[in-house]
Amino acid sequence: MRLHEHEAARFFQQAGIPVPPFAVARTADEAVATLPKVELPVVLKAQVLVGARGKHGGIALAVTSEEVREKVGALLGSSVRGLTVETVMVARQVPIARELYVGATIDPSAGAITVILGVAGGMDVETIARERPEALFRRSVVPPDELRGHQARALALEAGFRGDLMVKIADVLVALFRVFRKTDALIAEINPLVVTADEALWAVDAVLDVDDSALFRHPEMPKDTLARIDHPLERAAKQIGVSYVDLDGEIAIISSGAGLGMATMDVVGQRLRPANFLETGGGITEELMYKTTHLVLEKPGLRGLLINLYGGINPIHEGAKGIVRVLREQNVTIPVVAKALGNRQEETWATLAEAGVTIVTDITTEAAVDALIARLAERDVS
Amino acid sequence: MSILLNKKTRVLVQGITGKIGRAQTKWMLEYGTRIVAGVTPGRGGEVVEGVPVFDGVLQAVRETGAEASVFFVPARSVKDTVFETLEAGIKLVVVVTEHVPVHDTMEMKTEAKKVGATLLGPTTPGILTVGEAKMGIIPGNLFPKTSGPAGVISRSGTLSYEVGGILAKAGIAPSTVVGMGADPVVLTDLPDLLRFFAADPQTKLVTIVGEVGGVQEELAAEYIAREFRKPVITYVAGRNTPEGKRMGHAGAIVQRGMGSVESKVAALEKAGVAIARTPAEIGPIARRLLP
Questions:
Q1: Same domain assignment for residues B117 and B248
Q2: Residue B142 and residue A341: Cβ atoms within 8 Å?
Q3: Catalytic member of B79, B204, B249, B264
Q4: Is B43 an 8 Å CB contact of chain A?
Q5: Active site annotation includes B249
Q6: What is the sign, positive or negative, of the torsion defined by CA atoms of B15, B18, B24, B29?
Q7: How confident is the model at residue A365 (pLDDT cuts 50, 70, 90)?
Q8: Contact (Cβ atoms closer than 8 angstroms) between residue B91 and residue B68
Q9: What domains can be seen in chain A, in order of their start residue?
Q10: What interface predicted TM-score (ipTM) does this complex get?
Q11: For position B258, what pLDDT does the model report?
């Protein structure tokens, strides 16, 4: 789950990272009311979960309280990269002498945490890595080890910093690493970390993406996980415990595993266009399959439905009952083809076939796509 | 011959008294797996499918000689349970559980390296040695009765079943099918699994079933180019994955320009690996490559 900037900034601040004074506003009046505490001049930042807000009209500067009122009014309700702005972060402006990058992320190959210090900042880290790779300095830490102060100082020294500034940067790195571990983060980033003319540091942006699988042990995290998913069908899927990704085709797909779902997309995509990716994971029940079938059929303009299931951990014979309930209730007329193999496959086939589903018993997904194309052709003829 | 697991391996089932643990124990026993013990804390003394249940791993190991363990324990208990299992001296652990926190996985991986144990997962369907034994949830009826020359390593469960079936249809039986796990960090890296197949005289070729996301396929490409001498076929799923979207698995995501099918296929092709564009293409390619 990606946190909003103001939420991430709070975690950073609590860990001792210097963050310019800020507040959050939902109306122009609220924004003006924060000024005695935040102090002018301020930066007004749309709290939407996308990057590059600056380039897309999501960030404004204000020097007077009239400007704050006017610009917050304009930001609220506006759309930044397709997302509607509901809250604005009001933060004190800091004078910028230099911009740095600091971040922590998971290195999947090493099973370690990579801490990164960049002597360039303000552009995204991939761009820095591509255009100025020599500007990034990295250190790998293997949990349960922590990032020690001396290791952070060695990194700052390597990056060319000296004196008090070197020590302050190392302190930020250690604090960021602690936040990363403490919040079960996947990404923690300050970009830019601003250096002022008198060598003070300020975290002027805050990114924190935390592991959904670890939310059970983080009561301090926001509870609106679902509300952060933009696409209505993707949100509905999460709610029933399956995984849906919207695509731009017309063949709906239901699969019982992620790899199988991606392979189904690949095979369908050779001759038709997949409307979605959907995988149920290992929790199939009649009810789950009922809701899932309902969900994928909600997308307008579908021409067919391809079901691809394996009965390993999943009772697919139960799932089949849920599927046919939807087909009957909604009187579904588009062709439905199912390949369902594994434990109790014969029962599954019987249930589905009775509701007019074409059954494919061949192991290849190609065979299922062939059957679907044949059904589509029949329809075109009639 | 096979890798990691055979019909003599003494298997422990952790979380054996749960609904899934119970059902899967039955399927594993029916397949021929030598299950000697189960563990669920607080349920010692019970019997599940004829298997004695213990309160802790150490006790189960002492009394039954269990040497490998398969997990059906909840995600929040996985880390603790892995440490308990490694402390009891078990060297093969299969973590079927999904949604294990990545930070826990990193700590488990460090510990496994330290004690020299092989841990599969998290989010693995497990391991199945054809005609002998299985640990995990891979359905036995999708594979031939007797084993053959094809090693299979898969990130995905369901797709490993499909590929096993496709190989069987081409008249080629697998030797051992290994699920490496579908999380961003896996407990044993792909090159280490390939090393087991390199040392297995029965395995004459290896099929790798990859997915978008992560770097395992790229690590494998480096290793194969350097020292793996058996033929390798790879299919990498998720060619049409939109950037930034998780495709079901926590690890299946193209993010920050990394993890695309194109980059994986390019690396593998350069290492001399045969590329299948769909799972079905694996059958004919395997027939051509088999000595």
A1: no
A2: yes
A3: B249
A4: no
A5: yes
A6: positive
A7: very high
A8: yes
A9: 21-92 (3.30.1490.20), 98-217 (3.30.470.20), 229-381 (3.40.50.261)
A10: 0.92
A11: 76
